[in-house]
Amino acid sequence: MHEASIAQNVLDIAINTATENSAIKINKVCLKIGQLTAIEENSLKFAFDALKEDTMAANAELLIEHIPIVGKCNNCGKKDTYSEMFFSCSNCGSYKMEILSGEELSIKEIEVD
Amino acid sequence: MEKINIEEKILSKNIKKADALRELFKEKGVFVLNLVSSPGSGKTSILESTLTGLKDKYNIGVIEGDLQTDNDAKRIRKLGIKAHQINTGGACHLEASGIEKSLEQFDLDNMDLLIIENVGNLVCPSSFDLGEDCKVVVISTTEGDDKPAKYPSMIRVSSALIINKTDLLEHVDFNTEECIKYAKGIQPDLKIFQTSCKTGEGIKHWSSWLAEAIESKRKS
Ligand SMILES: Nc1nc2c(ncn2[C@@H]2O[C@H](COP(=O)(O)OP(=O)(O)O)[C@@H](O)[C@H]2O)c(=O)[nH]1
Ligand SMILES: [Mg+2]
Ligand SMILES: [Zn+2]
Ligand SMILES: [Zn+2]
Fold first, then answer.
1. Ion ligand 3: protein residues whose beta carbon lies under 5 Å
2. Which domain, by its residues, includes A88?
3. What residues make up the domain containing B89?
4. Are B51 and B81 in contact (CB under 8 A)?
5. Whose CA is nearest to atom 3 of ligand 1?
6. What is the pTM assigned to this prediction?
7. Contact at CB, B4 and A85, closer than 8 angstroms
């Protein structure tokens, strides 16, 4: 359950940022999670909901934007979206793929009062 | 209601700590390996087989990560090698802050190789950088040759794959070629080793790769 550790990090960053901006309450926390990261959304939400109790984020909603895997072939140059990690170029079959997106694991923004 | 833009990596705290550790290991000339696998693939056994042959030439330290018990650290200490046990309680992976704390137990000025045996888990440790030079993933022949396809995120961040328990190949349906094909499809640069801790097959090949890595990192 590394989702617990990730949820704690999200909460820490959100609360620090809110405090620095003199907010009193966090309403929303927006994340960007790439499909290449091994994060289970339900576990993450569950952990976040458990950890946020008794903090200024007690009523905060966790919103997750899923970022698709986009790869560029270093052989023929084709850019395409892929659904899984085991991928070769959809055009020429080469495995020499450069990953353009899908590795994101970041906190995008928060909404506060 | 106000929106505040953050755009920060969620694990930035761990990343920063890991980067600082990597800098420290570089300065001290210590090669650091993060060894990962499912529970029971043979990480500790591989260390037992490998380190016996390396300990006369190099100063070695081992950090053992387990949910409970210090059994693995005890096994390493039996070889006359310094080992520190981290018990994570519930956590399924080690984090850089835990490694930083463990380093108090070691003398980095007199160390060539630090091995971190991570908690048995093929998912979580892939997200947590420990400041290592490389991750090495162990898959044993009793686990099924589609392990790389099921746990691609771990294969993707690893530099080498050890296929262990080759002595059991004749008893199990494990297609070594398939396993390697899957793994290389995810990570084309993956180094492949095939070992048995029972017969000693392949241990030499793996040990010499490790020795080379230590030499190239060592302070001249
Ligand atoms: N037959 C066979 N058994 C092995 C081999 N390597 C490890 N084992 C056994 O597998 C079990 C788990 O090994 P261990 O090193 O504790 O795995 P770890 O949890 O990954 O550290 C032990 O009973 C070992 O004796 C091998 O190459 N062949
Ligand atoms: Mg072990
Ligand atoms: Zn986990
Ligand atoms: Zn192509």
1. A 1-2; B 92, 124
2. 3-112
3. 6-219
4. yes
5. B165
6. 0.92
7. no
